[in-house]
Amino acid sequence: SAVYVRSKGKASQEVGMRSETIHLPATTSQNELLALVDRLNADTAVHGILVQMPLPKHIDPSAVIRRITPEKDVDGFHPVNVGKLLIGERDGFAPCTPAGVQELLLRYGVETAGREAVVVGRSNIVGKPMAALLVQPGRGGDCTVTVCHSRTRSLAEHTRRADILIVAMGRAEVIRGDMIKPGAVVVDVGINRVEDATAPRGYRLVGDVHFESAKEVASLITPVPGGVGPMTIAMLLRNTVRAAHALAA
Ligand code: NAP
Ligand code: L37
Question: What is the rounded CA–CA span in Å between residue 236 and residue 11?
Fold first, then answer.
């Protein structure tokens, strides 16, 4: 989280957006955190609020998320924004990671309409909103979507049918080339640290996809790092600019 929060602050600075990172001690009470959210909600100089998860165990994340005014919820986690995404109301905020994946597909000219999209993972921050975006009618949507999870029977049978395969399971390098349809577009959302004695920090980052075998089969594939991660940050900036315009209107 510390790495991500720092990258977000730096990216804001790079585009000329004021950002403030408020570090609180782990002993902060839920009421104190809610009071801070209230203060930021009321501050007209603030257009976007992001609470980086995970929170300490004594704080209920859903209570904190619900407290953020939906108009400033640039992470897109408030139930109002989740609902708007599902209904297809475009004035809400979509969560940054799946929005970044959709933007990547659009920018690389990947046709989505009528394609078989398979999403592996059903979390509220990646898998479920990813499926909602891809099934929506219109640009970057109109897919036939399958969502897989830990109770899915024979994962490989599903992944092998995918024209567009989006993997967000948090399991290092489990999707190998033989689980991918030749010519498929593969988007690897996973970020896993694996031990590597030869790496400077003693570990390296890998995705949920085994890149070396998958790249032989896929027509397009995202790397880790340097793939979906930076897009997540870009979409955070986009959501915040949109929030500022909407709040000013
Ligand atoms: P999560 O909440 O742990 O969800 C993982 C999902 O994968 C769950 O739905 C789980 O199923 C499913 N799963 C786990 N093992 C599986 C298996 N063997 N077969 C099929 N499905 C399986 O994780 P998350 O927050 O969605 O994140 C997923 C990954 O993306 C992580 O590596 C995370 O670090 C990374 N991430 C990256 C970004 C970015 O910007 N690049 C942003 C967010 C997350 P159940 O629901 O049944 O448990
Ligand atoms: N708001 N964001 C919010 N709340 C959360 O609870 N998990 C989470 C969240 N996620 C988040 O910030 N994700 C994220 C993931 C990766 C990057 C940025 C944000 C990123 O920049 N990844 C780089 C490399 C990161 C590294 O070196 O560790 C990449 O190239 O993938």
Answer: 10
Q: Summarize pLDDT for 76-85 with one digit per residue, the tens.
A: 999 999 999 9
Asked whether the beta carbons of 103 and 132 are under 8 A apart, the reply is no
Q: What is the pTM of this model?
A: 0.97
Task: Identify which of 205, 206, 191, 209 has the alpha carbon closest to the alpha carbon of residue 118.
Answer: 209
Which residues are CB-neighbours of 194 under 8 A, at least 6 positions away? Answer: 172, 173, 203, 204, 205, 206
Atom of ligand 1 nearest to the CA of 152: 20
Which amino acid appears at position 18 of this protein? R
Protein residues whose CB sits closer than 6 Å to any atom of ligand 2: 3-4, 7, 50, 52-53, 75, 191, 205, 224-226, 229-230, 232-233
Side-chain-side CA neighbours of 206 within 13 Å: the count stands at: 17
